[in-house]
Design brief:
CATH architecture of the largest domain: Sandwich
Number of helices: 1
Shape: globular
Protein name: 3-keto-alpha-glucoside-1,2-lyase/3-keto-2-hydroxy-glucal hydratase domain-containing protein
Helix content: 10-25%
Pfam families: 3keto-disac_hyd (PF06439)
Organism: Mucilaginibacter pocheonensis
Largest sheet: 10 strands, antiparallel
CATH topology of the largest domain: Jelly Rolls
InterPro entries: AL/BT2_dom
Radius of gyration: 25 Å
Number of strands: 17
Length: 281
């Protein structure tokens, strides 16, 4: 049948409307999918909130001299959208070092968070805990810890505050309870390695980041600056005490584990705790 100009126009209009409807429905599907991905704690760019700002239902506690799950003295509490570490219900500190663990282990990831030191240090805690806290990672499962185990077998991103005396006191250091790491081409003999960070005095918020690539490479970042790198975390070394020997398998490479926030005598706040999982390659 011979097409007229009118028929040609009607045909073109029909094709245009069809393409428009297809595009519209595609955009609707993409929008719905995006909303679904952002629900349940997910945020832009592949980041996921580990702390929802309201409660610690996805976290659990282990404090020295107490069973797993016992939040002695309400040490870890949520107020004003922050996880607060406090000791106002303690009395004598009695080496009751504690950790708040996220519920699942991780291996390859980028963690970011903010912290600040506040209030008065618990004077019955060991002197080295003044303006001192940390984020533990590649940690043993706290359910494998004995009641009187002081530190989890883990790696620590140590957080320190300036003492206000003008002397440097870097933060974002590495400490190794029950572990070893390779630094500058050799197994490092000391318990801690200082970072190259600036000193942060007072109650200012500091942003910490941790990039963990299994056992291959670990990077510490403070306020956007890379301050420390090392590799090959393994079980070994000392410092941790009271553990079950079957979990202290010296020489075993650590490529995954739990993440925990530390309490050891200094009040500290944490907020904006987020993680992005990375590909293993």
């Amino acid at each position: 049948m011979k097409r007229t100009l009118t028929n040609e126009r009607n045909y073109a209009d029909a094709i245009y409307k069809k393409r428009y409807l297809i595009l519209f429905f595609c955009l609707v599907i993409i929008s719905c999918g995006s909303k679904k991905r952002l629900s349940g704690g997910n945020i832009d760019g592949g980041w996921t909130k580990l702390f929802n700002g309201r409660d610690t239902k996805d976290w659990f506690v282990k404090i020295n001299h107490h069973e797993v799950g016992e939040n002695f003295g309400n040490t870890f509490r949520v107020e004003d959208g922050m996880i607060k570490v406090r000791y106002d219900q303690y009395g004598d500190f009695n080496d009751q070092f504690g950790h708040l663990y996220y519920k699942t282990p991780f291996s390859y990831y980028h963690l970011r968070y903010e912290y600040r030191f506040v209030g008065k240090w618990q004077t019955t805690a060991p002197p080295y805990t003044l303006l001192n806290s940390g984020v533990m990672f590649h940690s043993q499962d706290p359910r494998t810890m004995l009641k009187d185990q002081d530190w989890p077998i883990s790696i620590e991103m140590q957080l320190l505050g300036g003492l206000g005396d003008g002397k440097p006191r870097p933060t974002g250091n590495m400490c190794s309870p029950g572990t070893d790491v390779v630094y500058k081409g050799k197994v490092w003999p000391d318990h801690c390695i200082n970072s190259t960070s600036k000193t942060y005095d007072g109650e200012q918020w500091v942003k910490g980041e941790l990039i963990v690539q299994g056992s291959k490479l670990i990077t510490h970042i403070i306020n956007g600056d890379t301050v420390l790198q090392y590799s090959k975390p393994t079980i070994g070394g000392g410092v941790a005490h009271g553990y079950d020997p079957k979990y202290k398998q010296d020489g075993k490479l650590l490529s995954s584990g739990f993440i925990a926030l530390q309490s050891e005598g200094q009040p500290v706040d944490f907020r904006n705790i987020e993680i992005k999982q990375l590909p293993a390659d």
